[in-house]
Amino acid sequence: MQKKTSIHQNQEILSAFAKAMGHPTRLTILQFLSQRDNCYFGNIHDELPISKATVSQHLKELKNAGLIQGEIEAPKVKYCINRKNWQLAKDYFEEFFSSIKEAPDCSIE
């Protein structure tokens, strides 16, 4: 009987990054923030055709995954890319994709 492979911590971290990046709006927010040192909530909301509550929820998901940081400057909140965790995400994705060997063509008819 073959033993099941355990899920490694790196896979859990990579999965959290992938989940956070798994929505087009979140990718848009990440691209928007990547072009600036930092940005206020209102600027992010102005770029998106969605409600403030929805923007807030997407920012929360990205922040929980560690991809962005938020800093309160009352009454505003300023966001930026978390460069350390962004590099970590890039490294984990690169390691993951390079670890998958080239698969044979799967022709199912």
UniProtKB/TrEMBL annotation:
Please list the coiled coil stretches: none
Q: Tell me which CDD domains the record gives.
A: HTH_ARSR
Q: Which Pfam families did the record assign?
A: HTH_5 (PF01022)
PROSITE patterns from the UniProt entry: HTH_ARSR_2
Q: Which GO terms describe its molecular function?
A: DNA binding; DNA-binding transcription factor activity
Q: Which residues form the signal peptide?
A: none
Per UniProt, the keywords (alphabetical) are:
DNA-binding, Transcription, Transcription regulation
NCBIfam families (UniProt xref): HTH_metalloreg
Q: Which PANTHER family match?
A: REGULATORY PROTEIN ARSR, TRANSCRIPTIONAL REGULATOR, ARSR FAMILY
Q: What is this protein called?
A: HTH arsR-type domain-containing protein
Q: Which organism is it from?
A: bioreactor metagenome
